[in-house]
Amino acid sequence: MASLRHRVLPPQLLLKWPKEASFCLWLLHPDPSGRPKMSDLLQSEFLNEPRNEIDERDAAIELREKIDEQDLLLEFLLTLQQKKQEAADTLNEIVSFISSDIEEVTKRHTSVKKSGPRSINITTDEDDSENSVSRKRIRQGICIDGRDEPDRKSDSPGGALSKSSRLMKNFRKLESAYFLTRRRSVAKPRERSSVSNLATERSSVSNLSSREHRQQQQNNGGGWINTFLEGLCKYLSFSKMRVKADLKQGDFLNSSNLVCSLSFDRDGEFFATAGVNKKIKVFEYNSILHKDRDIHYPAVEMASRSKLSSICWNGYIKSQIASSNFEGVVQVWDVTRSQTFLEMKEHERRVWSVDFSVADPTMLASGSDDGSVKLWNINQGISVGTIKTKANVCSVQFPTDSGRTLAFGSADHRIYYYDLRNSKMPLCTLVGHSKTVSYVKFIDSMTLVSASTDNTIKLWDLSMCTSRVLDSPLQSFTGHLNVKNFVGLSVSEGYIATGSETNEVFVYHKAFPMPALSFKFNSTDPFSGDEMDDSAQFISSVCWRGQTSTLVAANSMGNIKLLEMA
């Protein structure tokens, strides 16, 4: 401080910062009148120069921020333009191949009309009462005898599609099914494994270039049309489900009437029921159709020691029914004698499912909570093979044309497909469900349907399994409710029937993910005979009558109905 008082500054300050040193000496002038005033300080060059530099720096920063903002906006707009251009290109390509499809279908339409006798006059006039049935068939099914014959008004707002509320309500799903069918029709065999059940427009178009599309049409004449048209026709062939008959039993006061399984014989003349009442009841189909009967008595009734979980009629030996029960016992019954023909006790826990091989009627499969699938030869009365898994087995199924392969659904959310000649490792593992797989059914030798308590039914093409794991189903069917119970699954001619925990029966067609039909089970008051809506119940089993439009369904109260698509 003494040095400052004598205006002596440190040498380093004088050398490095001469302007600052001069300013300090000015402030320390020995004569007070020589010291700067406030106005002098504010106008001094020393203070104003830094302020100007700061202002310039702030202005530069502000300018750079504005430029960055403009660059950001420009980048956004350019990206938006690029994406919209890509979407426009995709949309143009979609419109292009849809136009090509329209052209192909128009050619077929014209060809079909020309191929028919000239004496036939195709008309859809509303005042033509003689052709009202034909018109109804054209509007609902858009096909007659398997040939596409669109309504002449179908291109107007009042056409066939717009009049079908089921289709218009699910138009987006129908659109996805169309793109999925188109995508599969041009996919090369090695690309089939990558087909997803969720077919978006963009992914579909990526496999549908104009050149590929034209080449595919030249190769098979638009073969996808037949596939899609068949599904569309079958989806629209029926408009409702009606009750063909109610099965009236005398034990309606029994609280243990839950029906766990239903099965028709090979000719559709008899069907059997089994459940927690420990009884297998066999009813004659035609006798149930007699509505004048107060009570329908079974033609045969056989008692089991334990609750029954599953039954299956032998597809060749008409008198044989296989059953499984909660004690882990597999039995084969002789229906004509009303007694057990064979009893096998190798499972350690409850058996959920049994299935006879259609191709080899001496072969029987069973799946159990003990994590095993057992193969039985009914002539030997013992198991001839065992497949061990790590989880409960809920359903087993042979394909109709072979006794050498088998599929089963498991509590580990997976479906396993085995070649029984090599049972050490599955031929394919199907992954896609998020909960227990309760049922598996074959539509044909390479097409499988699975049901799960994840609220979905999935369709699988086993020919797409090239790496022992298949994680992309062809289709996922949703609409029913199934999160807890076994609700049944049955297939017939591409139609898939299942139950729901809303006490409804749902019918899907394999071509589309939404329900084609549904029917609400109403409970019947045993005393008044009036129908009551009881949503607390659930459908527990369904079974088609062979390859017909009739099915039998039962709910958790033991109510059994014969239903028919109409």
Explain what the structure shows.
It is a single chain. With 566 residues, the chain is of the alpha+beta class. The protein is 29% helix and 30% strand. The chain is built from 13 helices and 33 strands. The strands form nine sheets. It has a five-stranded mixed β-sheet with strand order 16-17-18-19-23, with no helix packed on it. The chain has a four-stranded antiparallel β-sheet with strand order 3-33-32-31, with no helix packed on it. It has a four-stranded antiparallel β-sheet with strand order 4-5-6-7. The N and C termini lie far apart (111 Å). The relative contact order is 0.08. About 12% of the residues have low confidence.
SSE blueprint:
Blueprint: H1 2-5, H2 11-16, H3 18-27, H4 38-43, H5 45-115, H6 132-141, E1 143-144, E2 147-148, H7 160-163, H8 165-169, H9 171-186, H10 201-206, H11 210-220, H12 224-236, E3 241-247, E4 259-264, E5 270-275, E6 279-284, H13 285-288, E7 300-303, E8 308-313, E9 320-325, E10 330-334, E11 339-344, E12 351-356, E13 363-368, E14 372-377, E15 382-388, E16 393-397, E17 405-410, E18 414-419, E19 428-431, E20 437-444, E21 447-452, E22 457-461, E23 469-470, E24 475-477, E25 489-492, E26 495-499, E27 504-509, E28 517-520, E29 522-524, E30 531-533, E31 539-544, E32 550-555, E33 560-565
Parallel strand pairs: 19-23
Antiparallel strand pairs: 1-2, 3-33, 4-5, 5-6, 6-7, 8-9, 9-10, 10-11, 12-13, 13-14, 14-15, 16-17, 17-18, 18-19, 20-21, 21-22, 22-24, 25-26, 26-27, 27-28, 29-30, 31-32, 32-33
